[in-house]
Inverse folding.
């Protein structure tokens, strides 16, 4: 494989590669490089932060604890526990920055924007995040079932309120529209009958998921032309029998990992592979082994998400925030805060990452992170802030961004590269003539400065 093909693979399956890894891999065949990616980068390790302080929220009695603490103290305790979601955000970013299982984490990031969920219960959202990670390269049917039974999803889409006397259709609708089939590939009656099948699917703190028999509708349902005493598992089975389910997921994967513009021939090719047994790992191996994946039209054409941009910079020049909270501010400024999706449909991605404000901020990001300067950061406010709270904070407080940068790590890998090699490693897309002209006029003092300059050009925004 040539350098651009290896870098293309590792930007789609991860966040790019440094020169040492690239030089080792580009000497090998495509088959060996892809096999190496799958054999060495897919070990599942759960992401966990210390939640011992909040054990009572998962195993204890709320009423007893509230009585012991007092109402106001208990209220503050719950508020503090909700803020732990931010610490999980930081732990996830750290995992993306440093993990060797980079492909598994990239897949986890992808699925987080398919099976979208938001929850302020730190125990449940941590569990949910690990469900994504554990199933990211597994069997899609098992994945859907695990998501359906997760307390965070049950709460997020109101299935706890889904009872035979008054079925709640939220989960049933999103299961088909956003998770498996896509809009227009089912009927309103399918939604109603599916909702009935999921009645009583709930959870308790100590018990976890269970089906409440008193709330479950055991009556006959008709779904996609089939009739029977269906429960949620039957519904999922019938959905997966529809080839549209395989096609829908393949289109999502294609847009994220290959090209935002669909190639119908490739989609049908992938659909046939995936429909056989819904093996996610097999599908991804097929994509990365396909000749068309490495065609010029698919290289350097995808706009990096804010997380891809931040992690890509880190993996070239490791940095840390003096104030970890500021990592959240940067995510919010660019429009993607992990664990805080905009809505159940998730982030649209690609061109939606860019507008007149975010583009200028993104172009300045490498300078802000790596120039070791104190820079006034116009924060958009706290994650849960109302507009009034945000406005007050903006009037009365200044936010500064200051970093610790590990240039010594960069120097070990990049110091002796010539400028052309450095450019080819950092910038994957074809460089515009005007940008090329600007680069040619730069006075290159050292690779450290040149790195920041290359990360500040529009083409670095692409992968």
């Amino acid at each position: 494989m040539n350098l651009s093909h290896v870098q293309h693979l590792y930007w789609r399956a991860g966040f790019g590669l440094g020169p040492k890894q690239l030089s080792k891999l580009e000497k090998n065949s495509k088959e060996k490089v892809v096999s190496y990616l799958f054999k060495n980068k897919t070990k599942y390790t759960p992401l966990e932060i210390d939640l011992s302080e909040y054990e009572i929220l998962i195993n204890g009695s709320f009423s007893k604890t509230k009585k012991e603490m007092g109402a106001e103290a208990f209220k503050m305790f719950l508020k503090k526990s909700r803020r732990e979601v931010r610490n999980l955000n930081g732990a996830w970013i750290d995992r993306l920055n440093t993990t060797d299982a980079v492909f598994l984490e990239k897949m986890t990031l992808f699925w987080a924007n398919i099976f979208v969920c938001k929850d302020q219960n730190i125990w449940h959202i941590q569990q949910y995040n690990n469900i994504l990670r554990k199933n990211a390269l597994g069997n899609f049917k098992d994945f859907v079932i695990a998501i359906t039974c997760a307390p965070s999803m049950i709460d997020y889409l109101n299935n706890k309120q889904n009872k035979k006397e008054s079925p709640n259709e939220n989960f049933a609708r999103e299961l088909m529209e956003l998770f498996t089939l896509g809009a227009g590939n089912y009927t309103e009656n399918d939604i109603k009958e599916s909702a009935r099948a999921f009645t009583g699917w709930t959870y308790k703190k100590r018990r976890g998921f269970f089906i409440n028999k008193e709330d479950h509708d055991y009556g006959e349902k008709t779904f996609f032309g089939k009739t029977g005493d269906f429960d949620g598992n039957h519904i999922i089975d019938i959905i997966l029998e529809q080839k549209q389910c395989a096609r829908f997921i393949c289109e999502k994967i294609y847009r994220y990992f290959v090209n935002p513009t669909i190639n119908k021939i490739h989609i049908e090719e992938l659909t046939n592979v995936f429909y056989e047994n819904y093996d996610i790992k097999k599908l991804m191996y097929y994509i990365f082994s396909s000749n068309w994946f490495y065609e010029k039209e698919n290289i350097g054409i995808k706009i990096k998400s804010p997380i891809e941009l931040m992690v890509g910079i880190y993996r070239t020049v490791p940095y840390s925030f003096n104030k970890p909270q500021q990592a959240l501010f940067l995510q919010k400024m660019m429009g993607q805060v992990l664990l805080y999706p905009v809505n159940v449909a998730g982030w649209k991605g690609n061109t939606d990452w860019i507008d007149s404000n975010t583009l200028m901020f993104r172009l300045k990001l490498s300078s802000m992170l790596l120039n070791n300067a104190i820079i006034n950061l116009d924060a958009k406010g706290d994650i849960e802030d109302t507009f009034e709270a945000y406005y007050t904070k903006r009037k009365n407080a200044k936010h500064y961004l200051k970093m610790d940068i590990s240039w010594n790590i960069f120097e070990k890998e990049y110091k002796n590269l010539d400028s052309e090699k450095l450019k080819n490693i950092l910038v994957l897309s074809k460089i515009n003539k005007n940008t090329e002209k600007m680069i040619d006029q730069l006075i290159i003092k050292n690779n450290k400065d040149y790195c920041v300059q290359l990360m500040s050009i529009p083409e670095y925004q692409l992968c």
Q: What stands out?
A: The radius of gyration is 24 Å. The longest helix spans residues 71-98.
